[in-house]
Amino acid sequence: MTTEKNTIFIGKRIMPNYELKARDLLDAGAKEITIKSRGMMNGKAIDLAEILKRKCNLKIARVNTETEEVDAESREEKTSYKKKITSLEITMTV
After folding, report:
1. Tens-digit pLDDT profile for the chain (94 aa)?
2. Domains held by the chain: number
């Protein structure tokens, strides 16, 4: 299992920042890197995994997906409802 320091959380930053973080982890001796994302950032996490697979010769060890329900609020109707958000966790090894 990876520690939080070997985890890359995907957000709104540009892709080269995440590539640099992964290379820094590998240079520090990490044997396993975990990429985590939620919602609309899942596509960016998959892109990063493919880039690392190609450029750094990493292998995808595990892929976990979860769907969680969160409370949301409609702005127009001022009503609350449940919204489903998918989270993605990709573990890559050397």
Report:
1. 445 789 999 999 999 999 999 999 999 999 999 999 999 999 999 999 999 999 999 999 999 999 998 888 777 777 788 889 999 999 999 9
2. 1
The pTM of the full predicted model, rounded to 2 decimals, is 0.84
Write the Ramachandran bin of 57: left for phi over 0, alpha for psi from -120 to 50, otherwise beta.
Answer: left
Residue with structure tokens 């966790």?
Answer: 89
Domain, as residue range, for 84: 4-93
What CATH number does residue 14 fall under? Answer: 3.30.110.20
Long-range contacts of 79-86 (CB under 8 A, 24+ apart): 85/38, 85/39, 86/38, 86/39, 86/42
For tokens 């939620």, the residue is: 38
The residues with which 86 forms a beta bridge, in sequence order, are 67
Beta-bridged to residue 82, according to DSSP, are 71
Report CA-CA distances (Å) from 18 to 3, 24, 52, 70. Answer: 17, 10, 10, 27
